[in-house]
Amino acid sequence: MHTFHNPKQIAGPFGHYEHGVETALPGRLMHVSGQIGVAPDGDVPEGIAAQTKLVWQNICAVLAEAGMTAQDIVKTNTYILDRDYVPVLAEMRKRFLGEDHRGASTTLVVSSLVRPGWLVEIDAVAIAP
Questions:
Q1: Which of 40, 71, 101, 126 is most exposed by smallest CB count within 10 Å?
Q2: Whole-structure pTM value
């Protein structure tokens, strides 16, 4: 369903992603708003690992509502407060998307998110038949 593009004229991906993801349509397109590490009861756990796990659980819940899975994700944008979080992000991405899943990805280090205590926000685009 997806064709990956990593032109030889540019440096290869620096992580677990592809430079371009081409999708043959028709299909169902889902844009998942930025998800943050907030539990249904409003609790915000301490630490980047706990928040990132909850972010991915929230993304998966939104996708499941539409009959999709994390395997349908073709693009993510990640916003973090500290570049030292990158190894944890990579670990959680592989845990939820799988070792072989590749998609387009952008990660930005930002000075803050909307509320104090939030350490990570991820939005996603998914396409399913």
A1: 40
A2: 0.85
